[in-house]
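Here is the promised in-class demo. Please do not try to memorize the tokens; focus on the logic of going from shape to residues.
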């Protein structure tokens, strides 16, 4: 009998379970005003503040309409601002506020704890190989989606 591969199933289970754990950690740190999806946007901006919505969409893998509504909520709560680009008036730049920069340390601690959970029992070499494989899966999915959009 042919063995069924479980990669997608396992990734989905990991995604759901890690999301629940992340939400619990966020609550423990008293950061409930930001949900995990919004945290992903903030995390991307902590790595590179002052980027266009298009760049942020690529970094977070969120569609433009989903991202725009999430940015609306984050802007309404004072976590970021959107300003026109000085170089290109068609571009909108997303920037963090001082309020959000203060949350960064707590979120970085949560991220460190989640990384520790993910990689418990792994060697550095295991982690390096694993992340190469994950990037390849992500690239495969991105390429497939691009082909679907262009009708290939």
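The designed amino acids, position by position:
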């Amino acid at each position: 009998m042919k063995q069924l591969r479980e990669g997608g199933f396992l990734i989905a289970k990991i995604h759901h379970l890690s999301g629940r754990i992340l939400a619990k950690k966020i609550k423990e740190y008293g950061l409930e005003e930001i949900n995990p999806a919004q945290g992903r946007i903030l995390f991307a901006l902590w790595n590179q503040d002052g980027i266009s919505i298009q760049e942020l969409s690529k970094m977070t893998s969120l569609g433009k309409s989903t991202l725009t509504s999430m940015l609306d909520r984050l802007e309404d709560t004072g976590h970021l601002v959107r300003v026109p680009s000085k170089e290109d008036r068609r571009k909108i730049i997303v920037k963090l506020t001082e309020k959000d920069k203060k949350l960064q340390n707590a979120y970085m601690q949560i991220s460190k704890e989640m990384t520790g959970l993910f990689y418990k029992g792994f060697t550095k070499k295991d982690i390096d190989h694993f992340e190469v494989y994950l990037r390849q899966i992500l690239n495969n999915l991105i390429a497939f989606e691009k082909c679907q959009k262009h009708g290939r």
